[in-house]
Amino acid sequence: MAATLFARWSQENFFSRRLAQFGTLHLNETIDPVKVEAFVANKAAAHDEIEHLQLESQEV
């Protein structure tokens, strides 16, 4: 039972860190279309990874 609780705690911490990283992705300067495109792609990839990992964790 302790292993299960530790695994769940670890998983929750992992998701908290990923969501925090996702939340820190924001623009701080004037908009350059090339940078915006890269920024949006990076943020979308992070969001997709978070969703995938959450779905995967629900299956366990």
Automatic annotation (TrEMBL):
**Source superkingdom:** Bacteria
* Protein name per Swiss-Prot or TrEMBL: Uncharacterized protein
Q: Which organism is it from?
A: Candidatus Accumulibacter contiguus
